[in-house]
Batch of 2 targets.
Target 1
Amino acid sequence: MRNKEKLQDKARGMLVGLAVGDALGAPIEFLPASAISVIDDEIPHFHENSRLPKGVWTDDTEMALCLADSLLASKGYDSYDIMMKFVAWCDNGYRTYDGKSPMDIGVQTARAIGEFKDEPVIFGDDTTESAGNGAIMRLAPVIIANLGVSDIDATAQMAVLSARETHNSKTAEMVTRIFAEVLYKICQGDDKKAVADFVDSKMEVEKDGNKLYNLGGYIVDTFAIALFGLMNFDNFKDGMLAVLRFGGDTDTNGACYGQLAGAYYGYEAILEEWREGVYLSDELVKIADELLEMDECPVIRTRFR
Ligand SMILES: [Mg+2]
């Protein structure tokens, strides 16, 4: 593949990988790892359950699409427009499968959206201690929009801004910055060793598989699980299965791994059943392409003073 095609394959992989991981993980979210037998060893399928039809994803992808829609419509990053889309999602089911209010919504996210409705501007250094994984589960559109037009630092800064909208915490911002830099580097062609060295230079993450079972939604844990899946397997499918088998916050773990591995191996390397069976598959590809083709992606307005 030529460079331009390669980048497009990675961008599509990052966004579709996010949605695939979300949709695979959603039916088994917070089941104990020992109970995760619904994942077939050989041919891992999407599953249907009482909450969701086959291939349908949750808040991770819904919020990612809110971000994508806003970046494309605003031709850059506009805090207020992004938050209005999050409000429309939360209150009116914008970007949800059935047009109803989302079935999944993180505690911190719900609080931040509620606070935005009361007071859109955030003054000073009003950070919280809690650091949920909501900031990285939806990140792909921000990275893709910047890939061709911004350097790694500007991209990471915008990623951090997008985290701050709902996860105004030092830890969430730190992990989001590193996650953004890793995604950017992968798209530039960094190999796994370079990625591992980079992460090691930035932070300590738990890479022992035995300690990754049944974890909650802490952003550092989710990042560790996603990295584990990328580093210890040589293809999208096997890493995804390993990530899902840890149990815990499976849809978000899957969505975060899906972004890393989708960017690393590319869209074409995702199982056809997954990349074509995921809800809105064609639209996801189209959105990734449109984000990648943006002429510029400046910060237009932020609500942080
Ligand atoms: Mg979810």
Target 2
Amino acid sequence: MLKLSDPVQENAAATVAMPTFDIRRLTVEFPTISGNPAVAIRNLDLRIERGEIFGLVGESGAGKTTLARSLLRLPPEPGRISAGELVFEGRDIMPLTEVALQRMRGRDISMIVPNPRNELNPLLTVGEQIANVARVHLRVSRREAFGMALEILRAVQIPDPDRRMTAFPHEMSGGMAQRIVIAIALICSPKFIVSDDATSGLDVTVQAQILDLLRRLAKDRGSAMLFITRDIGITAHFCDRVAVIFDGEIMELADREDFFFRPAHPYTIMLMAAFSYNQRLRRLWARPEPLPGAAVEATACPYVLRCPLAQKRCRVDRPALRELARGHYARCHFPVLR
Ligand SMILES: Nc1ncnc2c1ncn2[C@@H]1O[C@H](COP(=O)(O)OP(=O)(O)OP(=O)(O)O)[C@@H](O)[C@H]1O
Ligand SMILES: [Mg+2]
């Protein structure tokens, strides 16, 4: 039995429970001409556990990319992290110098983005590009780095990997280029991978293969992952936990099973209904988009204008994220409970 009053045991318990990434009260803003910054991420709390694949779903403009890039302390220009802590493996990375951050990026935390061709250097062979990452971050010899590159090309299931080592990016299909980007992201066995809409440009069968591969490699290497997508359906197969983000805030968060079998937030249900063939269901959960310029008061629920269940209270009392059942959170005064 673990006695938490014992300091040694307490430390042991803390180590076991320590998440890979503990995002605390993160706020990211963009300056505007009016002078009042636009808040893209609002006071966001999120803990991603070791080795878990965490899905983040939301519409265009919800703040997914802003969050993803802020984890590397690279919010999209001219965005700025205005508050919060980013505790990675027990250490807040907010005070780190740029040099220290550069050492971490690609080694401890790596990012996979769509449009793989833009990520790759057209002038270097695939083998050199992968090997360079290992040489810079792991300080291995050239020979060793090339050996590692060949090994990871095999792991990402590139056909004929020996020959591909000397190929250039333009000689590859989109799916293959995405595998190279994944190889680069994984070569240092990072503790954390951010995947931002990484498979959106690929056709459906290639997407399924790449997701399968990405999941297997992440699990084999013990890497945790923040997996971002606009497609809620993908998270059903791919993620251990899922959260929905709307206007820079988490609306619902749960284990995959709870999320899909017992969705509680009207916004989550609307996103799921949007994928249904049942028109009645879609209409039931969606209100027409509010007119442009229709703003939500800061004291109201951010989803109030589009929520079919909104009541008087939702217009005057901004809901907090609260736990409905163990590990299942929703930001709603009137969650759908079943
Ligand atoms: N470069 C920028 N300049 C100004 N505002 C920005 C910039 N990038 C993002 N924003 C603001 O931040 C909000 C979130 O944008 P973000 O790109 O993070 O959304 P997203 O969820 O990744 O959308 P998508 O699914 O289209 O990729 C946007 O609504 C926008 O107002
Ligand atoms: Mg985005």
